[in-house]
Amino acid sequence: MEKIYLSSFLRVILTLIFLSTKPSHALIDIGINPPLIPNPRLHKAYIALQAWKHAMISDPNGFTSNWYGPKVCNYTGVFCAASPDDPYVTTVAGIDINHANIAGSLPEELGLLTDLSLFHINSNRFFGKIPESFKKLNLLYELDISNNQFNGGFPYVVLYLPSLKFLDIRFNQFSGSIPSQLFDLKLDALFFNNNNFQSSLPTNLGNSPVSVIVMANNGLTGCFPSSSLVKMAGTLKEIVMTNNGFTGCLKPELGALKGMNVFDVSSNELVGSLPDAIGKMESLEQLNVANNKLSGYIPESICSLPKLKNFTFSSNFFISEPSKCLKVRSKDDTKNCIPYRPFQRSPMECKAFYAHPLDCSISGCSPPSPPPPPPRMNHWP
């Protein structure tokens, strides 16, 4: 009887030790046998999701509270579908745990989810690096890891995803340079704004087929890539480059972007005049060139654009705007040097600027351009 009691006691102790140990790989529930999981792919998904569950250190809203047991297709935020190569095999096709406020890391086991086409984890507190095993996700179509705490250099693993069309890594702590390979991917939408990237843009930017690209609020520098953007005229609809350090001028060739809806280059170091050719962007709805060092006249052709809803050119050194601009639905012309308009720069500030106007060649980006016409000093407020 004593031997039986000791044997039972030891079994309990060993079980407690096993359960209190947190291994580096996925824990598979003791009561779950592979036969209870419908197919090998879902079994791999079970391993991957259990590993991820154990890599989460905080889930205050209990978003993953039902992530246990073999029925992974019932897990909150996990979506299953028929496999592309076999309609009779169910696989994990998508993960969407946006806005769950979960903290933790991404384990290498996530590379077992080889049927995954959608991975959305925005607005959480995930940190660390993107696992190298993501290279195995050949079907991944959308990757959204925005608004987390990922850090380090650009996540190069995304460059190995052949099916990727949507990439969103904004609002993280990535730093360093932007790899040229990024613009050779067949993406439709690209967001890498609000990180700490500090470099010039690669010369092959124009290779990208994206319709939307947002790179705002980084430390990007170099000459404004007018020529590269023109190469994207067939697909590009929206570009947001605000709050970087781009220099040089906006070139007339930008008028070729006839399909552009949103063009935001505010808060950079752009100089020179606003090209009349921008008035050829016939689809333009929002134009923002605020907070640069642009000068001269506002072309009437811009304010005559048929779809223009918002035109912001505040905090520059423009000296005139046509009456047509007053009819734009939403407009901001403050902090310029425009006579008779309210909230302009002081006459002293305007005179000082035009005494030494900034030329397009000041940053080595363009040959010298003709100087702007002299302002009518006596009309300044």
UniProtKB/TrEMBL annotation:
GO terms for biological process: cell wall organization. GO terms for cellular component: membrane. It is a single-pass type I membrane protein. The lineage of its organism: Eukaryota, Viridiplantae, Streptophyta, Embryophyta, Tracheophyta. This is Cell wall hydroxyproline-rich glycoprotein. InterPro entries: Leu-rich_rpt, LRR_dom_sf, LRR_extensin-like_regulator, LRR_N_plant-typ. Keywords: Cell wall, Cell wall biogenesis/degradation, Glycoprotein, Hydroxylation, Leucine-rich repeat, Membrane, Repeat, Secreted, Signal, Transmembrane, Transmembrane helix. Residues 1-26 form the signal peptide. It comes from Gossypium harknessii. Residues 48-80 form the Leucine-rich repeat-containing N-terminal plant-type domain. It is found in: Membrane; Secreted, Cell wall. Belongs to the RLP family.
